[in-house]
Amino acid sequence: MADVALTGVDKFYGVEQALDDVSLTVEDGEFAVFVGPSGCGKSTLLRAIAGLEPISNGTISIGGIDVTGVAPSERDVAMVFQTYALYPHMTVHENMAFGMKVNGVAADERHERVLDAARILQLEPLLQRKPGQLSGGQRQRVAIGRAIVKKPKVFLFDEPLSNLDAKLRVQMRVELEALHRQLGATMIYVTHDQVEAMTMADRIVVLRAGAIEQIGQPLELYRSPRSEFVAGFLGSPGMNFLDVQIEGGLMKLGDVVFGTPGVDEPIVRLGVRPEHIGIVPPGQGRLDVVIDVKETLGGEAYLYTRHEPSDTQLVVKTDGEDPHAVEDRVGLTITDDRLHYFAADEQAVARVIDA
Ligand code: ADP
Ligand code: MG
């Protein structure tokens, strides 16, 4: 078991920079999630840690040992990919044992480790099957089993659940969390899915265009996003952003006053999450809106509303029993403690501002 420390990691593909001065430490035994939109460099970063991708600048160390120039097989890491590429002609047992066989692990030891992994992953009844006789979830469990039998210091997962259907994804998510608790191993998990990041991570690393945008515990990032990018990325539906006008020393959205702007960093945009907006009769809230669209999901409903004077859309999350209909006018309550403030450079202004 080991920590993973990166300092000043750059990666260039020709002139294109895929990683930009990435420095971070994943602690021993931690479950870290790298999250960000497609193309932000998540896979490149994971592959760099695995040694599959040489880096242009910086250092990578695992368990206190500099592995920057070390071959993947010598790094003591195991990687699980989105496409799990099992050998179709081999049984589950043979698939899991194969890597060890290549590495010269004795047959008894191989068998023991396969049985251990199969027990952890509940694959025992399936050991003699071929991949073609398994469901997608079972195949992905075999791929994880191949990683477990290596007894690596660090597990690296690159979107391992993306090929599974929604229900199975949730189930595997829970299984992976249990696996982490059971093994106590250092795990780095890459995903573009903010729900996976929020639910699985001890700490989330948000990446944007190859650089770290913010690192923190899930609720820390949810509550105190450092930028509009993080604010909009975590949470579903995403945070609402309101372009306020500064008039007479006040922040205004149409005729609605939201307080005084910051002095040092003038606030240009406010953020409020759909789940932090309340619904009241018209005239009784902070502002009145019209409902354009209503999505009912059963347990909850989303109202896509519009503040007409400023032509601003506000998504409101409410419960599944919500009685309102499209074209209804409603009042919205937004309390100041739920507001996020952003400056022109899209960075959050942390200061509390009097309304
Ligand atoms: P993610 O996993 O976050 O979707 P990647 O790490 O795969 O993103 O890619 C990051 C950036 O690096 C992208 O702009 C991608 O086009 C580029 N890239 C990735 N691999 C290569 C490669 N082998 N050659 C050139 N560019 C690459
Ligand atoms: Mg990727």
What's the end-to-end separation, in Å? 50 Å
* Strand residue percentage: 25-35%
Helical content (DSSP H or I, runs of 4+): 10-25%
Rounded to the nearest angstrom, the radius of gyration is 24 Å
Secondary-structure element pattern, one letter each: EEEHEEEHHHEHEHEEHHEEEEEEEEEEE
- Summed over residues and divided by their number, the pLDDT gives a mean of 94
Query: What can be said about the biggest beta sheet?
Result: 6 strands, mixed
- Total of DSSP H or I helical runs spanning 4+ residues: 8
> If strands are numbered along the chain, what order do they take across the biggest sheet?
6-7-8-3-9-10
Task: Describe the 3D structure.
By secondary structure, the chain is an alpha+beta fold. It is built from eight helices and 21 strands. The strands form five sheets. The protein has a six-stranded mixed β-sheet, with helices on both faces. β7, α5 (166-183) and β8 (186-191) form a beta-alpha-beta unit. The protein is elongated. The mean pLDDT is 94. Residues 42-43 line the site of magnesium ion. Magnesium ion binds at residues 42-43.
Topology:
Elements: E1 4-13, E2 16-26, E3 31-35, H1 42-50, E4 57-62, E5 65-66, E6 77-80, H2 92-102, H3 107-120, H4 136-148, E7 154-158, H5 166-183, E8 186-191, H6 194-200, E9 203-208, E10 211-216, H7 218-223, H8 228-233, E11 240-243, E12 245-247, E13 250-253, E14 256-257, E15 267-272, E16 278-280, E17 287-296, E18 300-307, E19 312-319, E20 329-333, E21 340-343
Parallel strand pairs: 3-8, 3-9, 6-7, 7-8
Antiparallel strand pairs: 1-2, 1-4, 4-5, 9-10, 11-15, 12-13, 13-14, 15-21, 16-20, 17-18, 17-20, 18-19
Helix pairs in contact: 2-3, 2-4, 3-4
The protein binds adenosine-5'-diphosphate and magnesium ion.
Adenosine-5'-diphosphate binds at residues 13, 16, 18, 36, 38-44.
